[in-house]
């Protein structure tokens, strides 16, 4: 059982500002309330390739994912760790993020891929965000009949959270825009 | 029934002792990313001292085995997002 969906969103902000916002969205205290399911973000590793202008980063994202009580009972925890790998190519102006869960993977696999590229219609002013999410519930005999319902719930939850994520991104972009105009830094 | 209280021990990776070092590093990184990296100054890494302190703290407090292997991992480009284990 696999559920997959994709979304597209245009930010009316330049790529530089949108990718800066993407790095900051979890850390900003203003966003803590909206993104209350994000408990912690740690950078685990990073690498800069000076010749190519590519930046590789791995971060750990700790998510509070409360499910129905019976699920919590089976799973034994409501905290989920995800690993996010990011590649930013400054030369071609692309940012790619891939996030997957590394805990609870016996029960569920969630993989999310996000790409930020300059918008083809207005590459210097706008950014296009393409997002793909795949959710796969592992069929367990005891859960098989419930699994599909849970899967649907997961999809709904993810869509709610990615809508929140977009709100936060828009807010961060506005904030960075205001900051850059007051400091004369163009991001 | 089914009350499971959330407490700090439910998280196997409580890295909050590193919160201050994390903030210092992330602030430095965000500044470097916006003001240097995006402007084509990607020849030199910055925030090295902040990173070293933060990483040292993380490696002490990261108990989750799955996560700590990423701390040790070199050559990040070889971690394809699609490989499972």
* Shape category of chain B: elongated
Mean pLDDT of chain B: 73
What is the CATH top level name of chain A?
A: Alpha Beta
Strand share of the residues of chain B? under 5%
Structural class of chain A: alpha+beta
- Rg of chain B is 17 Å
The name of the CATH superfamily of chain A reads: START domain
Beta-strand percentage range of chain A: 35-45%
Largest sheet of chain B: none
- SSE topology string of chain B: HHH
The CA-CA distance between the termini of chain B, in Å, is 35 Å
In the predicted model, the low-confidence regions of chain B spanning at least 5 consecutive residues are 1-12, 75-85
What letter string, H or E per element, gives the SSE order of chain A?
Answer: EHEEHEEEEH
Oligomer: heterodimer
Features:
heterodimer; A: 187 residues; alpha+beta; Alpha-D-Glucose-1,6-Bisphosphate, Chain A, domain 4; seven-stranded antiparallel beta sheet; 7 strands; 30% helix; B: 85 residues; mainly alpha; 3 helices; disordered N terminus; disordered C terminus
Question: What does this protein structure show overall?
Answer:
- The complex is a heterodimer of chains A (187) and B (85).
- Chain A has three helices and seven strands, in the order E-H-E-E-H-E-E-E-E-H.
- With 187 residues, chain A is α+β, with helices and mostly antiparallel strands.
- Chain A has a single domain (2-183), classed as Alpha-D-Glucose-1,6-Bisphosphate, Chain A, domain 4, CATH 3.30.530.20.
- A seven-stranded antiparallel β-sheet of chain A has the order 1-7-6-5-4-3-2.
- The mean pLDDT of chain A is 84.
- Chain B has 85 residues and is mostly helical.
- Chain B is elongated, with a radius of gyration of 17 Å.
- Chain B has three helices and no strands.
- Chain B has helices at residues 19-35, 48-61, 65-72.
- Chain B has a domain at 16-69.
């Amino acid at each position: 059982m696999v559920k997959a969906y994709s979304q597209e969103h245009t930010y009316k902000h330049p790529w530089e500002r949108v990718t800066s916002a993407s790095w900051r969205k979890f850390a900003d205290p203003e966003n803590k309330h909206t993104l209350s399911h994000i408990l912690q973000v740690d950078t685990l590793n990073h690498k800069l390739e000076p010749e190519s202008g590519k930046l590789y980063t791995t971060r750990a994202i700790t998510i509070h994912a409360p499910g129905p009580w019976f699920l919590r009972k089976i799973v034994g925890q409501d905290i989920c760790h995800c690993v996010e790998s990011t590649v930013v190519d400054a030369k071609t102006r692309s940012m790619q993020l891939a996030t997957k869960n590394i805990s609870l993977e016996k029960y569920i696999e969630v993989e999310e891929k996000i790409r930020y590229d300059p918008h083809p219609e207005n590459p210097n002013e706008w950014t296009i965000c393409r997002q793909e999410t795949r959710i796969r519930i592992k069929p367990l005999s005891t859960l098989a009949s419930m699994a599909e319902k849970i899967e649907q719930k997961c999809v709904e939850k993810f869509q709610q959270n990615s809508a929140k994520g977009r709100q936060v991104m828009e807010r961060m972009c506005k904030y960075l825009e205001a900051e850059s105009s007051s400091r004369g830094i163009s991001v | 029934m089914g009350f499971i209280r959330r407490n700090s021990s439910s998280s196997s990776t409580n890295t909050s002792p590193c919160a201050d070092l994390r903030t210092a590093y992330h602030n430095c990184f965000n500044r470097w990313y916006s003001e240097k990296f995006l402007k084509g100054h990607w020849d030199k890494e910055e925030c090295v001292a902040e990173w070293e302190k933060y990483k040292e703290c993380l490696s002490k407090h990261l108990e989750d085995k799955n996560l700590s292997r990423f701390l040790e991992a070199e050559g990040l480009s070889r971690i394809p997002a699609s490989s499972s284990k």
